[in-house]
Amino acid sequence: MSRVAWIGLGNIGKALCENLARYGPISTPVTAWNRTHSAAEELAARVENIDAVASLTDAVNSSDIICVCLSDDAAVDAVFSSIIGQASVAGKLFVDLSTIHPDTASAQAERLQRLGAEYVGSPIFGGVPLAKARQVTLVLAGSSHAISKFRPFTTGVTCGQLICLSDKPCANAFMLKLLGNFIRFSAIATLAEADAFSEVVGLPPEALEQFVRVVLQGAAVGQLQGLRSGEYHKADKPSVPIALWNKESSHLVDIASKSGARLDVLSTVAGQGDRVKESYGPAASLLTIFGLIREQCGLPFEA
């Protein structure tokens, strides 16, 4: 039976680690490490089958599968540099659930593979509520052999659905994550503009809502309801801060520039995200784009 370590206990990482400990096919406790050790201690005190360790080296050396879920590229690079410099990685599997630039993932995979370790890219689609409910979607990219080792810890344990890119470069998973979130944010920005403009021209609110419900269906219904609920200005702590989109859009802009591709919609929504950050700060809700668009249409910020 594999021994598992979890590195990184942000909001989503904490939820997934807890689910792994509660529902995973493991016979030994999950070893949890976080840069702020108290977060690991608090989780271990609350959840059975989790052991908190203060040493990153101890977490890696005592485990066969190491799940990494960190905030950004710099954190991922720093943690893997520390692991490679201090721990024995040969024969181990590293599963990276962070949202990072595909180039960052490729670099970590190459470093680990040279030392006899395996690396699977596994970014997450879905927020904290879905993570707690084991309903996020994981994207897996890497060798089929490595993916097969991690599969028992996925559907029904840490996630609800899988997108498997077996025997594809790990960078593909992170590219899909960036593109997927680009599509989602673009859809939110489009709905925000449509709703604000419909108010300007006097279209009844229920008209647009009926169109979205009947024609677009699916996620668009919840997105429009989320905008109209006022969450973006009522919530004390946003579920998704705009800084996350700013990070991801900058990665996409970099990739598009290097590949020579022109992406006009990306340029537009990346600029909208930058303006939200400039006006309301990096901790503002991603949905603050709605308030910004309302102001651009001559409407009050609050819906």
What does this structure look like?
- The chain has 303 residues and is of the alpha/beta class.
- It folds into 2 domains: 4-168, Rossmann fold; 175-296, Orthogonal Bundle (N-(1-d-carboxylethyl)-l-norvaline Dehydrogenase, domain 2), CATH 1.10.1040.
- It is built from 14 helices and 9 strands.
- The protein has helices at 11-23, 37-46, 56-61, 73-86, 102-114, 128-132, 144-150, 171-200, 205-216, 219-228, 231-234, 242-259, 264-280, 288-296, and strands at 4-7, 30-33, 50-52, 65-68, 93-96, 118-121, 124-125, 137-142, 161-166.
- A 6-stranded parallel β-sheet has the order 3-2-1-4-5-6, with helices on both faces. The protein has a 3-stranded mixed β-sheet with strand order 7-8-9, with helices on both faces.
- It is elongated, with a radius of gyration of 21 Å.
- It starts with a strand and ends in a 7-residue tail after the last helix.
- The model has no long low-confidence stretch (mean pLDDT 95).
